[in-house]
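worker-03 picked up job from queue 'complexes'. Input manifest follows; two sequence lines, order preserved.
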Amino acid sequence: MSQKKLQITIIMLLTLCLLLPGGALAYSYGDPNQEEVAESFKEIVVELNRNPIDWSKVEAIYKTRRAEISSHFGEDVALKLDVNLSDEDKDSFIANFKAVLGMNLKRRFDYSMKDFGDYAEVKLLVAKAKGTYDVLKPYLPSNETNALEAAFNDAYEALGNPGLFGVGEQPSNETVFKEQTTYILNTILPLFPFEDQIEGDSKPEQFPGVVEHAPMERMKKTNTAISIIIILVVIAIVGVGIWILRKRKLL
Amino acid sequence: MINYKTKIEWISVIQLLAFAGFFVLIYSWRWLHIAQLPSTWDQVDFVLAVDRFDLLTMQPHFPGYPYYILGGMIAHRWISDPGTALIVFSVIVMISSIVPIYGLSRRYTSHAKSLIIVAGVHCTAYLWILSAQPMAETSALALLCWYWWSLSKALEGPSYGLQLIPLFIFSLIMGIRLSYLAFGIGIVLLWVYDYLRCRAAGYSFRRLLTRLIGWIAWALLFQLIWVVGLVMSAGDISGFIQMAMAFTGGHFNDWGGTASISLIDLLHRLYTLIVHNLIWTGLAVKSISLVVLLIVSLSFIIYNSKKVQWAQLDLFARSFVVMGVGYMVFAWLAQNIDKPRHIAPLILMIIGALYLLLTRNAREHSWRRYISLGLILLLIINQASIGALLVKQQSEQQPAVYQLADRLEQLQAESEQPIMVYTWEETRILEFLQVEFNHKRIYTFPFFMEETKALNPRRIFITGQALDGFVMQGAQVENQTRLVEIFHSDSLFDPVYADIRLYEWIQ
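worker-03 finished. Artifact:
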């Protein structure tokens, strides 16, 4: 009798252990309407405006994003930011990081164009682009923001909508989407050039290397992990249920 | 019901006519006083969803309320205003709940008393207020009545078909209001009773097990309908899971229970839940006369309880109580305590039980009969008249957020440069109103400081909610703010943003 109870307890604890990392992982998703690089930028700016500046904190935040920046926009960009950081050159660092956000906007839109048929994917990409824009917004001329926001809205609506059970379905419009995103990029990118004077060869139009990584790779990984955990948990719960019932019958 | 049908007398026809007339009256009044202006974040989410269903842009917010929005979309084909379409859908579903409430009452009392109970429940003022807002609550409540009724029928016998109905209705409820999940206890109890009954009938273990697995499979299948609808609306499954995780994570962080809950917090929550939300707001709609009436009714029931022959509680009544307690615990621990509408199902249950107990006291040829009848009439008249007034007020009053928007439009017109307004959830409504000034939601004080630095010399405004958030983060804001105006509306209609303070930020 007590052995049975022990077994039940162990299985319950195991189920609980399986559930816990699921919950913990769930929190790693983040708001789909926010862009992580951009959110880090906000934190960095706050740190840089303290007096005195704690450069080690700035570096710590930057380090969490460096790999991403390097793989998406090229090692050159990351190296440049490294140099700004080691020079403790606040203004250049901020200016260059803003340029990185501009590149990020372009990256999100480029992939949106590429995967335009995939509604679920493109919608998230555009949301990330909007998250980036929201962080850049205070640094934009205030007379531009209304038009830019309208362009974001139009671009988003151009994605169409599958509706709910087919009710309220709206078709997509790739031309409108391209027009609007091009307008957004043409307005924003020139405002945040990437400073590259120290190395001599100034290449402000260079938005290098976006091909190595799929745009949503990080999240896809978490997805599989969570799916597996959810499946395991369901199996465990059903198993425990059947097992207890069988015990009942034997009792 | 069958024995009633066999002898229809003229008196019951008159009762039915009076009842029908009463209903036409109260529902026409409600129809004329629909508050179609969405005044809270949640309401805006729903109204926007009728035109374009998109979980990612929070129209509506997670988990999507698909059947509710679908109902609104269908009503929207005839009613051009999306908010009104949603309300009309709710009201129609609410009217349908006359049938199950009557059916449930008939289990315990006579035809005439059942009509009184139905009228009483439908007159509850708080439910009137809710049903005149574009919110999912009332349609879910009406379906809960159908669910209870189907559950009571399913508990009566081993019929397979009858036991499927509550599973289906429960999936409709989940597709409208997921937080009523706690009422699933009823289904679990149904399965336990079914198991015990079939075992007593000598079913083999294998047969018992397949029966149970069959129930579970049906239940999951029914739930799958709306889940698939949601997934399709999101494009594909990975996009849907990603949104689900992100939104549920955020939901429980920002609005749900805080990370560390002490015993004192829990007791305080319980007090708010029962005294403030359930009794004062929900049952009495902040009216002293209703509180007194409720107390008198309750005392009368208790005083009289010894004189009444109590039948033993049947299976359904017991599971009804378990569901009520289960939902209350859920509301206590997991729901946002600032919004009294979360305890709406308990209001429905308590009001229904109260009228039933009052009618049960009414024994023939006794002075108690007149007192209990008088109390019932007083309660109904009181609830209905206060409800009628409140619904009218709600439709006429300008919500505080709208007043805020007007004032800020005015300030924008006076100012040469674009102004900037920092808010909390008010932004959602301002967005919906398509105001002419810039506004933004803000939580973190250092981000705010950083942004305002970049905005100088533009005029900056901030709402009290956002400012309170900064103070909680330890910001010193006394010398940097100037109170511009305070906007009021009735907290019965919008408990969280009924009072909005507007400050100007001085650099």
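worker-03 released lock.
Residues 250-260 of chain B have pLDDT under 50 and may be disordered.
Residues 78 and 229 of chain B are 23 Å apart (CA to CA).
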